[in-house]
Prior knowledge:
Layout: H1 8-56, E1 80-83, H2 86-92, H3 100-107, E2 120-123, E3 148-153, E4 158-163, E5 166-174, E6 185-188, E7 192-197, E8 205-213, E9 218-222, E10 235-237, H4 239-248, E11 253-255, E12 259-262, E13 266-270, H5 295-322
Parallel strand pairs: 3-13, 9-10
Antiparallel strand pairs: 1-2, 3-4, 4-5, 5-10, 6-13, 7-8, 8-9, 11-12
Amino acid sequence: MIYIIPGAGNSIRHDIFLCLFMNLRLLCALACIVLFAQCNGWQQNNKTVATHRSEMHPPDTQQQAAVQTVDTATRVTIVYRAITSKDSIRHALKYFSSQLPVLFAVNRVDSAHIVSLDTLIMPDKFDLDILQYSPFPTDVPALRDVHKILLFSYPAEYFAAYENGRLVRSGPTSMGRKKDTTATGLFYCNWKAEETKSTFNDEWDLKWNFNIQNKEGIGFHQYALPGYPASHSCLRLLDTDARYLYNWAGQWVIKGTDNIQVYGTPVIVFGAYPFGSQKPWRRLLNEPHALDIDAASLQETVAPYLSDIMNKQQKRQSGTAKK
């Protein structure tokens, strides 16, 4: 026999809703606890990552002098392999956009030419700081007093931008072909133009051009990177690197047509490309550190020019102060 109590239906429904509400509050509390634990773990991991990055890129402050040199001895070892099949290369290029800059850097190419390579060099790691793929050292004590300097390695086909001895930017380049080799030595940044015509061929548009040899019309700028030295003496760069250096480097202060009052950022081009031999970066397949340039050898490269660099830097500071 079932007894029906008047008003009992409302009471039961009230109890059910109350039970559901309490369970919902409990679930929300548990979710908050889990989320807090995950966030706390994420913050701890980020602290570890931040510490690692600060070791790789010492801050440009007074504490910089106390930072230990990060050089080839502490570089992450990257293992490289070669892909030669065209189908395999096309398959390998189906990486996320964040990974493509690594392939551009390792193979010295741009997006337009990577698909036409007969051999693609692939690293086993894509999640490292892009500076880890550079042959240049991340810290050069001999350059601590040099505010800014730009270096181009002809054999490595790679550039490096330093601020007070700390590597801030590095990437691939395509320098002068065998017929029109790029001159080596010390130069200074002169004038710049977001877009200009080539002095070799007025049909060539050069973006983010920064001249370093005024009369010869030589400079660094964005243009095709086919994976080997192909320019007519200029120093070609990826668009992102050319734009960065365009805004990063300082230009000259000139009076009249040829009276330089203040020199721009110093630029050193060094080494010789082994024309007629295999691409130097192919050596990475057998020796991951084959192209590494240590701080000591870079110091020897800069030493003959350091006095002139510091002298012109002092004049630049004086000229800026007068303004």
